[in-house]
Amino acid sequence: MRDSQQVQYIHLVRLGWDLRVLGVATSVVIPAAGAPVLEIMSAGGVRVRIQVTRRACGWVFVWRPWWSVT
What we know:
The protein is an alpha+beta fold.
Protein backbone atom coordinates (compact mmCIF):
# COMPACT_ATOMS: atom_id res chain seq x y z
CA MET A 1 0.00 0.00 0.00
CA ARG A 2 1.24 3.45 -0.79
CA ASP A 3 1.23 6.20 1.85
CA SER A 4 -1.96 7.84 0.57
CA GLN A 5 -3.77 4.49 0.58
CA GLN A 6 -2.63 3.91 4.17
CA VAL A 7 -4.09 7.27 5.20
CA GLN A 8 -7.31 6.43 3.32
CA TYR A 9 -7.48 3.10 5.16
CA ILE A 10 -6.98 4.77 8.55
CA HIS A 11 -9.77 7.30 7.89
CA LEU A 12 -12.14 4.56 6.73
CA VAL A 13 -11.40 2.30 9.71
CA ARG A 14 -12.03 5.17 12.13
CA LEU A 15 -15.31 6.04 10.42
CA GLY A 16 -16.31 2.39 10.32
CA TRP A 17 -15.57 1.96 14.02
CA ASP A 18 -17.60 5.08 14.92
CA LEU A 19 -20.53 3.82 12.83
CA ARG A 20 -20.38 0.35 14.42
CA VAL A 21 -20.64 1.97 17.86
CA LEU A 22 -23.90 3.48 16.59
CA GLY A 23 -25.12 0.04 15.49
CA VAL A 24 -24.38 0.31 11.76
CA ALA A 25 -22.92 -2.77 10.05
CA THR A 26 -19.68 -1.84 8.30
CA SER A 27 -16.98 -3.59 6.26
CA VAL A 28 -13.66 -2.24 5.04
CA VAL A 29 -12.89 -3.52 1.53
CA ILE A 30 -9.29 -3.53 0.35
CA PRO A 31 -9.21 -4.39 -3.35
CA ALA A 32 -6.14 -5.86 -5.00
CA ALA A 33 -6.01 -2.77 -7.21
CA GLY A 34 -7.48 0.58 -6.31
CA ALA A 35 -8.34 2.50 -3.19
CA PRO A 36 -9.93 1.00 -0.08
CA VAL A 37 -13.64 1.61 0.58
CA LEU A 38 -15.97 1.31 3.55
CA GLU A 39 -19.23 -0.51 2.86
CA ILE A 40 -22.33 0.05 4.99
CA MET A 41 -25.88 -1.23 4.70
CA SER A 42 -28.43 1.58 4.87
CA ALA A 43 -31.71 1.25 6.78
CA GLY A 44 -33.48 0.71 3.45
CA GLY A 45 -31.23 -2.23 2.60
CA VAL A 46 -29.09 -0.35 0.07
CA ARG A 47 -25.38 -1.02 0.22
CA VAL A 48 -23.36 2.21 0.23
CA ARG A 49 -19.64 2.49 -0.50
CA ILE A 50 -17.70 5.30 1.13
CA GLN A 51 -14.37 6.45 -0.20
CA VAL A 52 -12.01 9.03 1.21
CA THR A 53 -10.03 11.30 -1.07
CA ARG A 54 -7.54 14.11 -0.70
CA ARG A 55 -8.72 17.58 -1.77
CA ALA A 56 -7.16 21.02 -1.42
CA CYS A 57 -9.00 21.51 1.88
CA GLY A 58 -7.90 18.13 3.28
CA TRP A 59 -9.43 14.64 3.34
CA VAL A 60 -13.12 14.29 2.45
CA PHE A 61 -15.54 11.35 2.45
CA VAL A 62 -17.47 10.60 -0.73
CA TRP A 63 -20.32 8.11 -0.81
CA ARG A 64 -22.78 6.71 -3.31
CA PRO A 65 -24.88 3.55 -3.57
CA TRP A 66 -23.26 0.47 -5.11
CA TRP A 67 -25.30 0.86 -8.32
CA SER A 68 -24.33 4.44 -9.10
CA VAL A 69 -21.72 5.31 -11.68
CA THR A 70 -18.31 6.03 -10.16
